[in-house]
């Protein structure tokens, strides 16, 4: 819609650029507003100012909100911020209806937030079980909205032929059935037994939970684990383990230990803060809500580090409340230097990017920051001899007759965007067949790779020696197809095309 609107006045490429700039910036607004409202309602004006400051630092240092980022995570982050705000500060049925919609939308967008959404549903259900009639209207609004909205989104986004297909990485029959059943079960319980004893309400929740558990085991047992567990082991080793946002805590500790503090430390400290506040009965409900949602997202980050973008956002309000309280203590007469030191130290430890900088300094030394900046400047100003993704790098390829192109997976989407060609592979786990074919071609001997090229009807080989994936395959198989091309040993069934100095691709036509 943004592209079409901008296209009324601008050329197509400029209209795309406008949409790419506007879209991620739009989602900074619900994040800032949600965090600011939460902090204001729970801690007053000072807490709001602190939360907005921390949120600004979070957004600026997160690539999810920079112009050009049309990744779905910025929408999910905004939805999680809205949910945390409603559950911790709102007392109206309409707000909880919005929360039900936000849960359904988050599930429809992607499976990354499923554990967080499950925690949200448990919070609402348990609160109804404990509070009964006081929570009746909110529980009914939430559960009815969740069940209806997830049904509408399921029908709108899933083709009828796939209604009974269970997949674990998106909204499919498994997630839809469990969500709709849970919503209907909570709605019926809240509608008819809110006036009964607490023990009866809790027993009803146990029955609903048991029913959901049995249903999950019957229709989607494979979804109770890692959604990517079904990936081919070869793809896990040669692709997934090298995807930065998919790395686990242990993988980062082995390969990038300097990043551990930036990803995990603020979330861990915020969990401690929430736990201590709950134990001291200080705004118990709010800290329990933020702490439980934070625990779910921090647990996700231990499995895949992409969860840290949610956990670092969820630390903002607990830390803002703590910082506001420490500021009040510091301003008291005769507070002493300790109060001021605690106030300043808490501000510093609440910023994930500072932990990231400290991690780099601790593991790589001060000179690493300078070399990193210089490397970035050189990368921005260097010639395109290693560029395998831009429109300029693909100019020669775009002028050739349309065919199937084999190239590194990270170049796949750029080839689709800037050329008329088809591709075998792009960095998406659903494309196991194409990704495995490209890996087998690169690893096979030049003689054997021809069978794969012919079977996949490949017309052009776009060899990118600078691509990390290509270098990895060359190191793994020095006698393989990619290694031979890197040495200049071109098989007889390939015809080399003229080199483009503005591109990192070496192009070959398959005879």
Blueprint (SSEs and pairs):
Blueprint: H1 2-6, H2 12-26, H3 28-43, H4 45-60, H5 73-89, H6 93-109, H7 114-131, H8 136-157, H9 173-193, H10 198-219, H11 233-238, H12 249-255, H13 260-279, H14 284-303, H15 308-314, H16 316-330, H17 337-349, H18 352-364, H19 366-381, H20 395-398, E1 404-406, H21 412-418, E2 422-423, H22 432-443, H23 446-455, E3 458-463, H24 468-476, H25 481-486, E4 494-496, E5 506-510
Parallel strand pairs: 1-2, 1-3
Antiparallel strand pairs: 3-5, 4-5
Helix pairs in contact: 3-4, 3-5, 3-16, 4-16, 5-6, 5-7, 5-14, 5-15, 6-8, 7-8, 7-10, 7-14, 8-9, 9-10, 13-14, 13-15, 13-18, 14-15, 16-17, 18-19, 22-23
Shape field: globular
Kindly provide the radius of gyration, computed on alpha-carbon positions and rounded to a whole number of angstroms. Answer: 26 Å
- Give start-end ranges of low-pLDDT stretches: 379-383
The percent range for helix content is: 55-70%
Features:
about 500 residues; mainly alpha; 25 helices; 5 strands; about 5% strand
Task: Describe what is shown at a glance.
By secondary structure, the protein is mainly α.
What does this protein look like?
There is one protein chain. The protein is mostly helical and 511 residues long. It has 25 helices and five strands. The chain has a five-stranded mixed beta sheet, with helices on both faces. Strand 1, helix 21 (412-418) and strand 2 form a beta-alpha-beta unit. The longest helix is centred in the first third of the chain and has 22 residues, at 136-157. It is globular. Residues 379-383 have low confidence and may be disordered.
């Amino acid at each position: 819609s943004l592209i079409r609107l901008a296209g009324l006045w601008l050329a197509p490429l400029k209209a795309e650029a406008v949409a790419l700039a506007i879209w991620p910036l739009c989602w900074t607004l619900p994040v800032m507003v949600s965090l600011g409202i939460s902090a204001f309602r729970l801690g007053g004006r000072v807490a709001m100012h602190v939360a907005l400051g921390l949120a600004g630092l979070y957004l600026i240092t997160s690539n999810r909100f920079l112009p050009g980022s049309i990744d779905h995570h910025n929408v999910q982050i905004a939805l999680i911020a809205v949910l945390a705000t409603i559950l911790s500060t709102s007392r109206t049925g309409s707000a909880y209806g919005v929360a039900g919609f936000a849960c359904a939308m988050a599930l429809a967008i992607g499976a990354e937030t499923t554990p967080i959404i499950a925690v949200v549903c448990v919070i609402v259900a348990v609160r109804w079980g404990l509070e009964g009639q006081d929570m009746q209207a909110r529980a009914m609004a939430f559960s009815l909205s969740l069940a209806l909205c997830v049904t509408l989104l399921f029908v709108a986004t899933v083709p009828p032929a796939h209604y009974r297909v269970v997949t674990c990485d998106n909204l499919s029959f498994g997630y839809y059935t469990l969500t709709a059943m849970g919503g209907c079960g909570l709605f019926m319980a809240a509608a008819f037994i809110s006036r009964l004893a607490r023990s009866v309400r809790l027993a009803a929740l146990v029955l609903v939970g048991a029913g959901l558990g049995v249903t999950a085991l019957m229709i989607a047992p494979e979804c109770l684990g890692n959604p990517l567990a079904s990936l081919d082991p070869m793809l896990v080793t040669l692709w997934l383990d090298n995807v930065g946002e998919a790395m686990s805590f242990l993988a980062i500790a082995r390969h990038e230990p300097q990043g551990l503090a930036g990803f995990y430390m603020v979330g861990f400290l915020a969990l401690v803060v929430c736990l201590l506040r709950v134990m001291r009965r200080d705004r118990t409900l709010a800290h329990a809500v933020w702490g439980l949602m934070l625990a779910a997202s921090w647990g996700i980050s231990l499995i895949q580090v992409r969860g840290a973008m949610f956990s670092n956002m969820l630390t903002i309000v607990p830390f803002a409340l703590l910082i506001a309280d420490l500021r009040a203590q510091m301003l008291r007469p005769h507070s002493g230097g300790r109060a001021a030191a605690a106030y300043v130290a808490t501000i510093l430890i609440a910023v994930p990017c500072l932990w990231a900088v400290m991690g780099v300094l601790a593991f790589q030394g001060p000179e690493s920051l300078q070399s990193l900046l210089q490397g970035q400047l050189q990368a921005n100003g260097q010639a395109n001899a290693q560029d395998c993704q831009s429109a300029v790098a693909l100019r020669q390829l775009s002028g050739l007759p349309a065919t199937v192109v084999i190239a590194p997976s990270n170049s796949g989407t750029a080839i689709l965007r800037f050329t008329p060609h088809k591709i075998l592979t792009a960095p998406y786990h659903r494309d196991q067949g194409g990704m495995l074919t490209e890996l087998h071609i690169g690893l096979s001997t030049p003689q054997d790779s021809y069978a794969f090229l012919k079977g996949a009807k490949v017309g052009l080989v776009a060899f990118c020696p600078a691509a990390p994936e290509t270098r990895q395959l060359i190191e793994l198989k020095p006698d393989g197809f990619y290694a031979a091309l890197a040495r200049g040993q071109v098989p007889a069934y390939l015809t080399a095309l003229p080199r483009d100095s503005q591109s990192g691709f070496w192009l070959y036509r398959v005879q």
